[in-house]
C-alpha cells in the first residue's frame, strides 16, 4: 500500500480529504470513490466520440490552446476516433446546455477544461455511462474525475528569477478572479522572489476574465504606472507581456511560450502540457478500464517552467534552477511555516509543510501580496 506521504508527494488527494469525500486508495495509488461503479464498458476507437468543452478560444495561444493540443494528441494516438469541441463556453446555464448536447451526440467521454461546477455536475449525474473529467474540479462523482497541475512549484522557481531581476522589488500581477489558482500563484511567486529580495511585494489587479486582451493590457499598464517593474499573471494571452516590452520592463507568463511578443521582457512562462494525460485517460476509456481519478499533475509531468528568456542572466537562471533541481530530485517543498497572511495572522505554523491539497485549495494571500482580499 502506498504511503500517505508518497500519495501527497505525487499530487493525489491526502487521506483526510479522501476520507471526507468518501474516497479510498487503490493499489495503483489513485484515489477512487469508495462506492464507485464498475469501469465503463469498452468502446472501439472508430465508434468513440470524445468531447472537449473550453473556457476560451482555441486560438488564444494559452490555456485553451494547450488543451486543444491535447485533443490533437488523442486524435494522433487513436486513428479513427471522433472528437468534438466547443470553445468559449460561458459560466451560465448555456454551459449545461452544451454539456448535455455532448451527451446527446453520443459522447463517451467529456473533458471540461475549466471548472464549471454545477453546470457540469448536474449533467454528469444524469449520464452515468459517460466518463467526465473537470479541470480544477471540486466535486467528484462515480463518473466524474478531476485534474489540475502543481503550478506552484515552477511559479516559485520563476519568482526567484523575477526577484533577482527586479531593481525595485515591486512586482505586479494581472489576476482573473480571486480563486485558489490565483492565490497559490501569487503567493508562490512572491515567496520565491523574497528568497533573493526579502522586501519584495506583489500588487494584484483582477480583471474578472480569463481571456480579455484589452483588460489585461490596461491592468499591466496600471501596475507599471504604480511602480512595478516585473509583471506576472494568469492570463491566456500576451497582453501584459507586450506592455512590459514596450516599457522596458520584465514579465513572467502562463500556459505557453509567448516570448515572441516580448523577447526582451520575457523571463519565462509557467507552461502546461496535458497531452499525455488525455491520451492515457482516453485509452483507459476505450479499453474498458476507466474509472475517475483525481490528479494534480506534477512539475515535469504536466507543468514546468519554460526555457529562460534571452535577457535572463546566467547566474540568475542557475540560482533558480538549483531550487528546481532540488524539488525534482529531493521532493523539496519551500512551502514551510511560519507563513502569515496579509493581515499578519499565522496561517501555517513554524516547521509545518503545506500539503498538496492545502496548496491546491489556497484561498488567502500571504504578507506582501495586495489587491486580492479587498
From TrEMBL:
Entry superkingdom: Bacteria
InterPro entries: ABC-Purine-Binding, PnrA-like, TAT_signal, TAT_signal_bac_arc
NADP in keyword set: no
Signal peptide stretch: none
Plastid in keyword set: no
CDD domains: PBP1_BMP-like (cd19963)
Keywords, in A-Z order: Signal
Segments forming domain ABC transporter substrate-binding protein PnrA-like: 50-289
GO cellular component: plasma membrane
PANTHER family: ABC TRANSPORTER SUBSTRATE-BINDING PROTEIN
Entry protein name: BMP family ABC transporter substrate-binding protein
Species per Swiss-Prot/TrEMBL record: Pseudooceanicola albus
